[in-house]
Design a protein that fits this description.
By secondary structure, the chain is an alpha/beta fold. It has seven helices and seven strands. The chain has a single domain, classed as 3-Layer(aba) Sandwich (Peroxisomal Thiolase, Chain A, domain 1), CATH 3.40.47. It has a seven-stranded mixed sheet, sandwiched between helices.
């Protein structure tokens, strides 16, 4: 039975850069997320064309997960994610297509991404995960809720490790802070240490 849990690895994507465990992994001068994410994903994995068809929120989540999970075991990995805007960025584009009287025809490719938890689904598809997952909507990262749920998953044996974090995208403003929690490590999975990830 798991007694102690730790923050094992961290990936932060913001301001046109990707940092894994305080080590810069990728940066770009391109201010548009579409170009930045394309370049960053091709650097680490040029062999997954589905990435380029996703909405921006899913691209952000999958991109951060790709860097975070590099070289990591993925068996029995659960997902606990959160953001502030849900799928609002995609929802706005979907609504605009509905209201366009000249070209009325809502795109199924856009509609499929009008749920925030689809980004968790895209991570699961990409890595073949068949485990527990949850997606919370909150003004700020719900540290206590995410921590409690993660502890439950690990201590009940429902997962061996949990990928947790924040994936926020709205109108070209984006921020991803993903981290892996497991029984291994030195950085305790405490509310205080989680809060430090967002400072």
């Amino acid at each position: 039975m798991v007694e102690e849990t730790y923050i094992e690895k961290v990936c932060i994507v913001r301001a046109n850069s990707i940092v894994v465990d305080t080590v810069p992994r990728f940066s770009s001068d391109d201010s548009l997320f579409a170009e930045f994410s394309k370049q960053a994903f091709r650097q680490i994995n040029p062999e997954y064309p589905k990435f380029f068809k996703m909405d921006s929120l899913s691209k952000l989540a999958v991109l951060a997960a790709e860097y975070l999970l590099e070289g990591q075991p993925i068996d029995d990995l659960a997902l606990v994610l959160a953001n502030r805007s849900g799928s609002l960025d995609t929802d706005v584009r979907h609504q605009e297509s509905i209201q366009n009287e000249q070209e009325y025809y809502p795109s199924p490719a856009t509609f499929v991404y009008t749920l925030a938890n689809i980004c968790a689904g895209e991570i699961s598809i990409r890595h073949g995960l068949q485990t527990e997952n949850a997606f919370f909507i909150a003004e700020d990262y719900p540290i206590n809720t995410a921590r409690s749920y993660t502890e439950y998953l690990l201590k009940s044996g429902k997962a061996k490790r949990v990928l947790c974090g924040w994936v926020e995208f709205f109108e070209e403003k984006y921020d991803a802070v993903l981290y892996i929690v497991s029984p291994k490590g030195t950085n305790k999975h405490s509310a205080e240490n989680i809060k430090k990830l967002f400072e």
